[in-house]
Amino acid sequence: MRRIAAILPMLLSLLPLLPGAARTQDLAGHGGPVRALAVLEAAPGAPPVLASAGFDHAIILWDPLGGRALEVRRWHGGAVNALLALPGGGLASAGEDGRIAFWPATGAQDAPAGVLEGHTAPVAGLALAGPDLLASAGWDATVRLWRAGAAVAVLEGHAGPVNAVTALSRPLAAPPAGPASDAPARVASAGHDGTLRLWEPGGGGWEGRVLLESGTPQIALLALPDGVLAAAGADGAVRLIAPDGSVRVLDAGTRPVVALAAAPDGGLLAAAGLGGNVTLWSLPEARLRHTLQGPGQPFWSIAFHPDGRSLWTGGQDRRVRRWEVATGAPLGPLAAGGAETEAGPAAAAAAAEPHGARVWRACAACHALSAAPGPPMAGPHLHGLFGRRMGALADYPYSPRLARGDITWTPETVADLFTRGPDVVVPGTRMPVQTVGEPADLAALLRFLELATR
Ligand code: HEC
Fold first, then answer.
1. 348/188 Cα distance (integer angstroms)
2. How many CA atoms lie within 13 A of 102 on its CB side?
3. 141 near 158, Cβ under 8 Å?
4. How far is the CA of 398 from the centre of ligand 1 (A)?
5. Stretch 421-433: mean pLDDT, rounded?
6. 11 in Cβ contact with 3 (< 8 Å)
7. Would you say 137 and 160 are in contact if contact means Cβ atoms under 8 Å apart?
8. Mutate to test the pocket of ligand 1, among 360, 363, 381 (most ligand atoms within 8 A of CB)
């Protein structure tokens, strides 16, 4: 024990020497596990924007390389289970509340641009099955297809919750498909009943059949560019179903597997599990490349960087982490940056109140401490916080609840905000659910804020 205590500071002192350590790569902002991730479509050459969704009901848009949250969107009435990047930079989200929402590319949003309602239980998966055809997987045992804001088909057959959907660009071989040229996309679904089902347009509407009976609940499903379908679930096996119907089984070494992702060029497959690691295979040969070792907590979601050289994971620890694909190593220190990297009063406050500065790391992705112009951030700057009325900054688009301004921020009211939680103190706020549990942490945070926001 004493040996470890002696070695730890030495290891920590080496951290700044590691490649990438200067930049924050972990994104802390969610108040609960990060259930879904999606990289938004960006203009060529523009930096990627990453969307994350959580059990905390929030969707956060990130500048993931800058370590900053750009926007928080809180609208779903429960956990946000699935995200889907749409052509043109938009985003679709689906939630525990049974609703599907459409979000435009940018602009602080308190309400979505469109909503699809019909599922009578949580929606767990989304896929784009054509330019204007959306497929959703519901725990109400249905797959639903939507076009122009309305349901066009309710596909029934699964004997229990449907956990995932994907669209197949190429028809599977058996039984022989019709003319391939103008054939609309086919949709595959994965069920808790252990089956994978294939849905295709037939004479009297969409028809379904069982593609695979796995005997274990299926949770994640992904169509790979070469027509192979990847499916995984409770037993930790990743099944690759080839267009000719043959099945190859890979062992993810973690169970259950809850998320699958492929690199944009289709050359890599990643599987994330609640067992706390991510397994990477190179395709098409399905050779094991790496096992990413996380912080010992479940992973819930994965997304590849558009260049395919790194990937992000979302986990139980409420963080989004970035990993290098070539080495399987985490990029940067496994802690979010904070006031230590800022200049002026924030740096001085961090030196005087290091404990508080560490607690502040949970806030740093969304709030600047100074009023100086800087890159866009999801939350208002907190300069001059104590004595400031809630919702008082003229150039920040507050939610209607904060704009009411009926609280004055003092150490006592901020303490209340993070003891009972923003969702209790100011219900309707956009700020994610979060509390600072330890009284000593809260006191340190308030001392730090007192110094750093002067
Ligand atoms: C994921 C982003 C995010 C995180 C993390 C976050 N906040 Fe916020 N915060 C916001 C947003 C967004 C608002 C504005 C909410 C609204 O308008 O409803 C806000 C508002 C506030 C306000 C009210 C400011 C005003 O002008 O009235 C305070 C105070 C605050 N946050 C403090 C904190 C502290 C302290 C932490 C860390 C314990 C923290 N926040 C963590 C996003 C975040």
1. 56
2. 19
3. yes
4. 10
5. 91
6. no
7. no
8. 363
Name the pLDDT band for 340 (thresholds 50, 70, 90).
low
Cα–Cα distance for residue pair 35/283, rounded to 1 Å: 25
CA of 72 to the centre of ligand 1 (A): 10
236 alpha carbon to ligand 1 midpoint, in Å?
39
Give the per-residue pLDDT at 13: 32
| Ligand 1 midpoint to CA 223 (Å) | 39
- Residues in CB range of 307: below 8 A, 6 or more apart: 264
pLDDT in tens, 276-292: 889 999 999 999 999 99
How much of the chain, in percent, has pLDDT values that exceed 90? 66
Task: Report, as an integer, the average pLDDT of 5-33.
Answer: 46
Query: Within 10 A of 46 (CB to CB), how many other CB atoms are there?
Result: 10
Tell whether ligand 1 has an atom less than 6 A from the beta carbon of residue 429. yes
Nearest-atom number in ligand 1 for the CA of 405 is: 27
Q: Which of 80, 366, 396 maximizes ligand 1 atoms within 8 Å of its Cβ, making it the mutation to test the pocket?
A: 366
Q: Which atom of ligand 1 is nearest to the CA of 397?
A: 17
Give the other-Cβ count within 10 Å of 178's Cβ. 11
428/421 Cα distance (integer angstroms): 12
Q: Average pLDDT, whole number, for the chain?
A: 87
Residue 252: CB partners within 8 Å, gap ≥ 6?
232, 236, 237, 238, 271, 273, 279
From the CB of 60, is ligand 1 less than 6 Å away?
yes
Max CA-CA distance within the chain? 74
Taking CA atoms only, the protein residue closest to ligand 1 atom 11 is 379
CA 29 to ligand 1 centroid distance, Å: 10
Tell me how far apart the terminal alpha carbons of the chain are, to the nearest angstrom.
41
Per-residue pLDDT tens digits for 36-76: 999 999 888 888 999 999 998 999 999 988 888 999 999 99
Query: Do residues 332 and 25 make contact, with C-beta atoms less than 8 angstroms apart?
Result: yes
Regarding the beta carbon of 369 and ligand 1, being less than 6 Å apart is answered no
Q: Name 62's Cβ contacts closer than 8 Å, sequence gap at least 6.
A: 27, 29, 49, 50, 51, 52, 68, 69, 70, 320, 365
